[in-house]
Amino acid sequence: MQHGNIGMMIEKASNLLLKLSRRLFEDSEKQERFVEALMNPKSFHPCILWCQEKPEYSPFSVETPTIWQPQFIDRLSFGEKPGQHPLHEQGYFYCLDFSSVFAASILLTIPSPVKLVFDMCAAPGGKSVFAWKSLQPELLISNEVIGKRLGMLISNLKRCHVSPSTVVTKDSSVFAEMMPFSSDLVIVDAPCTGQSLLAKGEKALGCFHPTAINKSANRQKRIIANSAYLTAPQGYLAYMTCTYSPEENEDVCEWFLERFPQFQAVNMSHLQGYQSHLTSVPCYRMFPQDSLGAGAFTVLFKNMEEGEKKEVDEEALSAVWMNRPLAKVQK
C-alpha cells in the first residue's frame, strides 16, 4: 500500500511539472527539454567567487566567461573540486552555483558609491559575498531569521574576510520599522519552493503543489513589501528566486509594482537574451536546459522617490556577529 501511495505522489508531481512546463513555454520542444532537465538532472560546472585577489596562476581549469560574468567569478571545468582546495579554507574564494552569478549580476549595474547594503534573506551568504565584492559598501548587513542557518552564514562571512559586515536575525517587519529609507541596496533572495533543486538532483518535496506555491508567494510578497520600506530614495531593491513558478516570480513583481508605484524595474542590457516573456516587467530567467546552472529569476527595482537617506544606529540592531567596531552609518 505504501509503494502505491508513493507511486501516486510521483505521478501527481509529474503531472504538475508538465502543467508548469506548458505555462512557461509555448514551444513543445522547450517544454520537453525543461521537463527532461528536471527528471534526469545533469551536473553543472562548479563555480567560484574570488573573495581575495586571484593568484597569478589559477589552480583550476577555467571555462570561457559569459558576457554577464564579472572578472572575480570563474566557472571551472568538470571534475574540479574547489571546496577541497586549501585556498577555500583560507577564504580566497566562495563556491556557488552559476545560476546565483546570473541572478546577482544585476548588482553590477548599481552605481558607486554604495554606503549600506542590506541582505534580507542572507544564508548561506553567497549574495552577501557577491554584493560586498562587487560594490564594496561601507557596511554590509546580512539578516537570517532561521536560527539553524545562522552558523553557516557567519562562518562563510568570517572565512571570506567580508569586512565591514554585521549579521542580524530579525523578521523583515522589524527592520521596516527600525531602519526605514536607509539602504542603498536591499537584496531579497527570497525563500521559495526551490524547484531548481531538482535540476541538481536534490529533493524538493511538494515544490509543484499549488498550496506550497501560494504559501511561498504570499511570504515573498510580505518580505519584499517590508524590504521596500528599507530602500532609500534613489536606492535599489533586488529580488531573486531559485524557482520557476510564475506565482513566485513575475506575479510577485507585478503585485509589488502595483503596491509600490514609486519603484521601477531597471532594464538589464547584459541580460536581454534572458528576458521573461511572461510579463512586460523587465525581469530575467535562466533555465536548467541552458546547461549553465539549475535556474534563477532576477529583477532590480529602483526607488524613484527623492529625499534624504535615513541614518542607522548599528547598536540598536542587536547584532549576533560583526567584524567591525560599533558605529553609526553616516548619511
Protein architecture, described:
This protein is α/β, with parallel strands linked by helices and 331 residues long. The chain has 2 domains: 2-39; 98-303, Vaccinia Virus protein VP39 (Rossmann fold, 3-Layer(aba) Sandwich). It contains 9 helices and 14 strands. The radius of gyration is 20 Å and the shape is globular. The termini are far apart. The model is unreliable at 1-9 and 325-331 (pLDDT under 50).
* Rg, alpha carbons: 20 Å
Low-confidence stretches: 1-9, 325-331
Count of domain modules: 2
Q: CA-to-CA gap between the ends?
A: 65 Å
Indicate the CATH architecture of the largest domain: 3-Layer(aba) Sandwich
Number of helices: 9
What fraction, in percent, of the residue positions are helical? 25-40%
* Beta-strand residue fraction: 15-25%
Order of helices and strands: HHEEHEHEHEHEHEHEHEEEEEE
Any idea what the CATH superfamily of the largest domain is called?
A: Vaccinia Virus protein VP39
Structural class: alpha/beta
Average residue-wise pLDDT: 93
Q: What is the global morphology?
A: globular
Main attributes of the structure:
331 residues, alpha/beta, Rossmann fold, 2 domains, 9 helices, 14 strands, 32% helix, disordered C terminus
Question: Strands, helices and their partners?
Answer:
Blueprint: H1 2-24, H2 28-39, E1 47-50, E2 73-75, H3 86-89, E3 93-95, H4 98-104, E4 116-119, H5 126-135, E5 139-143, H6 147-159, E6 165-168, H7 172-178, E7 183-189, H8 210-230, E8 231-241, H9 250-259, E9 263-265, E10 284-286, E11 296-303, E12 312-313, E13 321-322, E14 328-329
Parallel strand pairs: 4-5, 4-7, 5-6, 7-8
Antiparallel strand pairs: 1-2, 1-3, 6-13, 8-11, 9-11, 10-11, 12-14
Helix pairs in contact: 1-2, 7-8, 8-9
